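Comment thread on ticket #2218

A.B. wrote:
> Attaching the input chain for the structure job we discussed in standup.
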Amino acid sequence: MSTILRPGQKTAAAPDAAQVYSFRDMYTRILLGLQAQHHQVLGVTSAIVGEGKTTIASALAGAIAQDGALVGFGREPNSTLLIECNQGTPPKELRIASRPGPGLTQVLQGECALDAAIQETAIERLSILPAGQPNHTFPLAIRMAALPDVISLLRERFGLIILDLPAVLNSTDTQVLARLADQLVLVVRAGVTPFKQVREALDELGEEMLLGMVLNDSQPELPSWLDNRL
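C.D. wrote:
> Ran it. Output below, let me know if you need it in another format.
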């Protein structure tokens, strides 16, 4: 288990040019880890709610797509899909945020074709599959036998799939969805998440599934006056 990156307050946000640079080290380490195992589905989760996992997942997806990074790691096609599995907390970045419409729930229930649910974003090479409405049907939908088949179809179409998962200790949905991922990243908010809860989350997920951990909102080691000049 290793810490992938410690994004500071300024980097845990939308993927503009400066933030893409900040997330470049993170996605390089992630893609190298996935490449070694020929994996292409990455789950992003946390122990409890409010740790910034949706921000990390969406910014990571945006940075990879904006850089066109998948080709450099031998992945084709050079496209990324972000799947919203974390209900109620869509990405805040306007270029990534999904529009109202059908989503994964409707696809699994046979109410919508997969192509009709996938949305293009304003970032080239990045698509998004929203959870879909209404929220109360999502837990039942993801427990249907069709879910693994849908993910298999998506594996053929995208070079990388990022699952924005619910918090491990707040929803049993995470256990259902995490088994679809090849590996997982656990987001921990610095100075907020108790170690005991991080340990409980790791025990539930299984450390063999963990690619690494992201320490979110950690304080910079440099003096603030110097950090602001970099």
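A.B. wrote:
> Thanks. Noting for the ticket: The CA atoms of residues 114 and 153 lie 9 Å apart.
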